[in-house]
Amino acid sequence: MTGIPGDDPWFRNYRPAPDAPVRLVCLPHAGGSASFYFPVARALSPRVEVLAVQYPGRQDRHSEPSETDLTVLAERIAEALGPWTDRPYALFGHSMGAVVGFEVARLMQAAGRGPVELFVSGRRAPSLDRSGEWQPSTDEEVIAEIRSLNGTGDALLRDKEMLSMILPALRADYAAVRRYRYRPGPLLDCPVTAFTGDRDPKARVEEVRAWENHTASGFGLHVLPGGHFFLVDRQAEVLRTVEDRMARSRAVPM
């Protein structure tokens, strides 16, 4: 396949790269949308074709109900991803997207079409117990949480009209994160590469290191300066590692 049909609701291909030997499928954070990865597509094309996942309930899918079950969301993405596995691909997820990516990787591996690598960013390993951790539930708590993580501009959070548009997706995503429970299963047979910021309160280094317990095929940890959204400021460093790892994984030609 050389492009994404206009009626495909799940993927956005901002910079088509039909001759790229590999795809990178990117999954957004809570409240995030596919456009978060537009700079990634711009930076990697034409060497890598970037598919940014668009969750229901935001941007051009705002009329659809958001999914409040991460496992179901992963199942829907895995089903949609099937036709796009005609060439090697890797998964990249930030924060909530890392957990969704992990569940997608498990499903695709079980179907015999697993990724060459799973990249996880700003997220503790899914097997770590979260049952006692406080999570925001009210609108006020969700907004305060987003503001504290510097994930959305403060001006946007003060704009009542814009806030009314993004809050439903934020509420749904935080509900999905609260409800998620890790289910033991086979280890991934692809490598896992993890990134985190050295000041990220949501993904401390030792918690992120525990991702190595989820793969039988190699693990790497990269700690970069910054908080939860270190990815924005350190994009070049992260993408250099991503490209290098994809070139090595299963001898994908680059």
Automatic annotation (TrEMBL):
<comment type="similarity">
    <text>Belongs to the thioesterase family.</text>
</comment>
<feature type="domain" description="Thioesterase TesA-like">
    <location>
        <begin position="25"/>
        <end position="246"/>
    </location>
</feature>
<dbReference type="InterPro" id="IPR012223">
    <property type="entry name" value="TEII"/>
</dbReference>
<dbReference type="InterPro" id="IPR029058">
    <property type="entry name" value="AB_hydrolase_fold"/>
</dbReference>
<dbReference type="Pfam" id="PF00975">
    <property type="entry name" value="Thioesterase"/>
</dbReference>
<protein>
    <submittedName>
        <fullName>Alpha/beta fold hydrolase</fullName>
    </submittedName>
</protein>
<keyword id="KW-0378">Hydrolase</keyword>
<dbReference type="GO" id="GO:0016787">
    <property type="term" value="F:hydrolase activity"/>
</dbReference>
<dbReference type="InterPro" id="IPR001031">
    <property type="entry name" value="Thioesterase"/>
</dbReference>
<dbReference type="InterPro" id="IPR020802">
    <property type="entry name" value="TesA-like"/>
</dbReference>
